[in-house]
Amino acid sequence: MTDQPADGQRPSNLFYLASLRRPLVDRADGIYIWDQTGRRFIDGSSGAMVVNIGHGNRTVIEAMKRQMDRVTFAYRLHFENEPAEELARQLAAHMPEGLDRMFFVSGGSEAVESCIKLARQWAVATNQPQRWKVVTRFPSYHGGTIGSLSVTGDDALVESFRPLLRAMPTVPAPVTWRDRDNFSPEERGVRYADMLEERILEEGPETVLAFIMEPIGGAATAALVAPDSYYSRIREICDRFGVLLIHDEVMSGAGRSGRFLGGDHWDCLPDIVAMSKGIGSGYAPLGAMAASSRLVQPLLDAGGFQHGHTYAGNPLACAAGLAVLGEMDRLHLIDNAAAMGDALMGELLELRKRFPFIADVRGKGLLIGAEMVADPETLAPIEPGKKAYQRLLDHAYARGLIIYARRVKGGLDGDNFIVAPPMVVTREQVDEIVSILGDSLEALA
Ligand code: PLP
Hints:
Blueprint: E1 25-29, E2 32-35, E3 40-43, H1 46-49, H2 58-70, H3 82-94, E4 101-105, H4 108-125, E5 133-138, H5 146-149, H6 155-158, E6 170-172, H7 185-203, E7 208-213, H8 228-241, E8 244-248, E9 272-275, E10 287-291, H9 293-301, H10 315-330, H11 333-354, E11 358-364, E12 367-372, H12 388-398, E13 401-402, E14 404-407, E15 415-419, H13 427-444
Parallel strand pairs: 3-13, 5-6, 5-7, 7-8, 8-9
Antiparallel strand pairs: 1-2, 2-3, 4-10, 9-10, 11-12, 12-15, 14-15
Helix pairs in contact: 2-10, 3-10, 4-9, 7-8, 11-13, 12-13
The structure holds pyridoxal-5'-phosphate.
The site of pyridoxal-5'-phosphate (PLP) has 16 residues, from helix 4.
């Protein structure tokens, strides 16, 4: 039966969040997206940081059509397929040295699940069955499935499901800009990394399997970037205790940060990487896990990776991913993300001068976030009931700009937003985004 809302909105058999009744989408092109009434929006968050190469890319669409004419599905236990093989080869060429073994899935949560299961099976295959704990950061976001949720640091999302989850050890995310002490940023970076060492020692190093982190924060920490010293120290600690380092690059990967992976900005080579969002760029549901042969081989020798989903390595999704990667290279989109990201960052720092309630602006490339507080001196949060993030979303939306904004319960203690347009964005479009954002912040003030 169809639910008939009292406010005259169109009926629907779908359900999401109560507040999420939005117009029906019609079409999209580049950084723009239209609803069915003909209204145009700037997609200033690439959906949820997904459409990295922009909407409506004809080369990708044509490549997908060609693949659809050949074969759209072949079960991976019956056939291998060329798009998956070629995507694995080309992705490996974009990855840091050594991360050359790929496993394809259909999204970010599945990619994170794959990383956890690979790590665990590697431990079992190498005679370390006592290692199972995956240390994670709080706050953080790693996905909505039960396994990925068990390493997600977001009370509101986890609360109802706690009885179903195995509690995993946490360390604070390095929100160093909030610290009021006499340490330099680099000293703070080391101190936050050292909290991982303390946690590993508390847990018993022989029980700790992995540490998972977003090199550049996403949904829970609005593009949080740690001081440089953090990253190398984390690697050092993981090495010292034989703990695997998993980088969740679902949001920060695929060129968005101005490098192929967010983690490429630092001297910190992960053991396993989860990717999704930008590698399919919204053209197909695609996720990937990358790992080194050192990890993969013991598992294969022990009989293979005991994990998979029906759509893993789907030829159509992989053909889309291959074309997306080709377009990213052909159009030099990673360089553009770096250049436009610098411009956007410069303009947001100017906005911050106009609106003192913007307490911090950070990020890399076209993944830029900001935090809003009631008092920039004391960092007192805006009252939760005032929902600054929602009002900002609404003001921007009313002016034809889509951004991403949230408040994380038990997390950063405040309202934050992310600006992350597609990597095809031009300088003029950056100016337009910032101008509308400025008007929206003005309306909020
Ligand atoms: N990991 C990170 C860092 C993410 O940002 C997300 C989604 O926002 C996920 C995992 C989960 O991805 P998906 O929603 O595709 O399952």
